[in-house]
UniProtKB/TrEMBL annotation:
Family: Belongs to the adenosylhomocysteinase family.
Residue numbers binding substrate: 55, 126, 151, 181, 185
Gene Ontology MF: a single term: adenosylhomocysteinase activity
Matching SUPFAM superfamilies: Formate/glycerate dehydrogenase catalytic domain-like, NAD(P)-binding Rossmann-fold domains
Cofactor: NAD(+)
Note, other: SAH is a product of SAM methyltransferases and is known to be a feedback inhibitor of these enzymes. As a result of this inhibition, organisms have evolved efficient enzymes to metabolize SAH via different pathways. The pathway found in methanogens differs from the canonical pathway, it uses the deamination of S-adenosyl-L-homocysteine to form S-inosyl-L-homocysteine for the regeneration of SAM from S-adenosyl-L-homocysteine.
Name of the protein in its database record: S-inosyl-L-homocysteine hydrolase
Keywords of this entry: Cytoplasm, Hydrolase, NAD, One-carbon metabolism
Pathway entry: Amino-acid biosynthesis; S-adenosyl-L-methionine biosynthesis
Residues engaged in binding NAD(+): 152-154, 186, 215-222, 238, 294-296, 341, 348
Domain S-adenosyl-L-homocysteine hydrolase NAD binding as annotated: residue spans: 186-347
Function per UniProt: Catalyzes the hydrolysis of S-inosyl-L-homocysteine (SIH) to L-homocysteine (Hcy) and inosine. Likely functions in a S-adenosyl-L-methionine (SAM) recycling pathway from S-adenosyl-L-homocysteine (SAH) produced from SAM-dependent methylation reactions. Can also catalyze the reverse reaction in vitro, i.e. the synthesis of SIH from Hcy and inosine.
Length: 419
């Protein structure tokens, strides 16, 4: 029998409800979609498993899907990102919720297994763990699944690899790749919330420090620009030539991690890859260097190697571990190498997640309606959804944009007009 919830404390619900309401007021686009969903019920009878960060913003997405008629089971996509009061608020409102901040790996997958008992028609992921578990252990569920949605870069990478190998057994919408998600969520959301998490954990001054940002995708761009805005001397480490060139043209120093390791005061990884900071880099770092990660999984910093290099490990404050090297240098790891912006702060602001989750809600509707007609591939968010979210956001901000005249429209769509 499926449980109703696995959470820390149902008595935290009232505090969670108040914070969810605060976020709702800053998510006008999602509220417009919720109103439409309440009227049209496009998800009536649809079972949805959502493996997402359990935050106030996610709660508003869940309420939007529920308004559309969906039956939902929510589980955490990261052991340290759950806000326990939000989980309690959702559980008290009848949402099947399985998430506790600080759960270990065994508990994490027990919660995901519990959520899958709902037998989903649509899956929502932030990191592709639901899809991976379905494909590896619960292939009997695939016949009823119309499709899924993936929220983050790391998950999209995993899923495209599955599709290339012919292993993906149902279609997935890469919500991450919507322009109104990728450029805004990844750049403005990750940029601000990562700095917020580091400040919460350490209270360090950025001005005058050498900040090493590994990765110059949209997340790296956001982190680098915010760190520079606070007075940091930013170094970018990048493997892709075009992104590295862009970082140079944006005014940042670019170098290999081995060189950056010698001069960095603070290291922030946002690549989606494994062992970005590893043994040789730890050995080259200055005393009191700080390392943290804002990529989805805690693999970007090679923590096992850091541990082996250390003669002592101390928990010196919340979210800060001190690794004492054999030569008495100290390296500080934040938030156990997990998402520092969620583990040590609140994650992205609701104004940013408004667009991300608007795309998510509309993509769920699209999958429910079109999933059976799609191939087992990873698809971009349809352009009309992306454009609609942008328009709704502009309207919510009170901003009007120009419109083409008939003459201008004709000129742009004709090959016979010119000089």
């Amino acid at each position: 029998m499926m449980k109703d919830y696995i959470i820390k404390d149902i008595n935290l619900a009232e505090a969670g409800k108040q914070r969810i309401e605060w976020a709702r007021r800053h998510m006008p686009v999602l509220q417009k979609i919720k109103e439409q969903f309440e009227s049209e019920k496009p998800l009536e009878g649809v079972n949805v498993v959502a493996c997402l960060h359990v935050t106030v913003e996610t709660a508003n997405l869940i309420y939007t899907l529920k308004a559309g008629g969906a039956n939902i089971a929510l589980t955490a996509s990261n052991p340290l990102s759950t806000q326990d009061d939000v989980a309690a608020a959702l559980a008290s409102g009848g949402i099947k919720t399985f998430a506790i901040k600080g759960e270990n790996e065994k508990q994490y997958y027990e919660c995901l297994e519990e959520a899958l008992k709902i037998k989903p028609h649509v899956t929502l992921d932030d990191g592709a763990d639901t899809i991976a578990l379905v494909h590896s252990k619960h292939q009997e569920l695939i016949k009823d699944i119309k499709g899924g949605c993936e929220e983050t870069t790391t998950g999209v990478i995993r899923l495209r690899a599955m599709a290339t190998d012919g292993a993906l057994k149902y279609p997935v919408i890469a919500v991450n790749d919507a322009e109104t998600k990728m450029m805004f969520d990844n750049r403005y959301g990750t940029g601000q919330s990562t700095i917020h998490g580091i400040m919460n954990a350490t209270n360090i001054l950025f001005a005058g420090k050498t900040i090493v940002v590994a990765g110059y995708g949209w997340c790296g761009r956001g982190v680098a620009s915010r760190a520079r805005g606070l007075g940091g001397n930013v170094v970018v480490v990048e493997v892709e030539p075009r992104k590295a060139l862009e970082a140079v043209m944006d005014g940042f120093r670019v170098m290999p991690m081995m060189e950056a390791a010698k001069i960095g005061d603070l290291f922030i990884t946002v690549t989606g890859d494994i062992s970005v900071i590893r043994k040789e880099h730890f050995q080259a770092m200055k005393d009191q260097a700080i390392v943290c990660n804002s990529g989805h999984f805690n693999v970007e910093i090679d923590i096992p190697q850091l541990t082996k290099l250390s003669k002592e490990v101390n928990q010196i404050k919340n979210d800060v571990q001190e690794y004492v090297m054999q030569d008495d240098r100290r390296i500080y790891l934040l938030a156990e190498g997990r998402l520092v912006n969620l583990a040590s702060a609140f994650g992205h602001p609701p104004e940013v997640m408004d667009m991300s989750f608007a795309n998510q809600a509309l993509a769920v509707r699209y999958i429910n309606e079109k999933g059976r007609t799609l191939k087992n591939q990873v698809y971009r968010v349809p352009a009309e959804i992306d454009s609609r979210v942008a328009k709704l956001k502009l309207e919510a901000m009170g901003i009007e944009i120009e419109t083409l005249t008939e003459e201008q429209d004709k000129y742009l769509h004709s090959w016979t007009l010119g000089t």
